[in-house]
From TrEMBL:
Protein name per its UniProtKB record: Sulfur transport
Biological source species: Carpediemonas membranifera
Keywords: Membrane, Transmembrane, Transmembrane helix
Start-end of Low complexity biased regions: 21-37
Matching InterPro entries: DUF6691 (IPR046513)
Domain of life: Eukaryota
Length: 195
């Protein structure tokens, strides 16, 4: 009799724990399924980098297709004095891109309250003409005229085997670091001056 009572109690205790184990298993399964689902922020990041990659691809493909990665083509456009060898195609490329982008921006900014993958449009708020916006383009134009290459086509040309592009890119990096150093020095100078 005692053995049968012990066996009945064991079977009852085992039977009572089964529903609890099933509940825990279902909770663990649901939590694992939720963990495997991509979160909205993760999906947003993937879309952002995917669109960024596609934009860079279109940019490089358009430059290569229009032969804007060739420095000689740029130099032939800048040599306006030589009418016989002047090549106006660069103007059509820049003008076409500017017109299309200007119209697209006017439509999208008015149609959308905010970008699809950002909190707001990065529109400029400073309407003042600073001295660096005058001197900077002049320096850029001098470098562009000397080398016949601007940053976009230059970066695209880094995939080529032309070692001159790597020398050019090294100069670009030095110029960027120099401007950053001068900007920091200017901030420190004004802080010391105001003390």
């Amino acid at each position: 009799m005692l053995k049968t009572e012990v066996r009945q109690r064991k079977t009852q205790s085992v039977g009572e724990t089964k529903p609890l184990n099933q509940k825990n298993a279902s909770k663990n399964a649901s939590s694992a399924a939720d963990a495997q689902k991509p979160s909205p922020s993760m999906f947003k990041h993937v879309m952002y980098y995917g669109i960024t990659f596609f934009a860079g691809f279109l940019f490089a493909f358009g430059l290569a297709l229009s032969n804007m990665t060739n420095p000689n083509k740029v130099l032939r456009f800048l040599a306006v004095a030589d009418w016989l060898n002047w090549d106006p195609s660069l103007g059509f490329v820049m003008g076409g891109g500017l017109i299309f982008t200007f119209i697209a921006f006017q439509i999208l900014v008015r149609a959308l309250k905010k970008p699809l993958l950002a909190d707001k449009f990065g529109m400029p708020t400073n309407n003042k003409l600073a001295w660096n916006l005058v001197i900077g383009p002049i320096i850029f134009g001098i470098g562009w005229g000397i080398g016949g290459i601007c940053p976009g086509p230059g970066i695209v040309n880094l995939v080529s085997t032309n070692w001159k592009m790597y020398v050019w890119f090294f100069g670009v990096c030095i110029g960027l670091y120099l401007e950053t150093f001068l900007a920091r020095f200017n901030v420190i100078y004004h802080k010391i001056k105001s003390m």
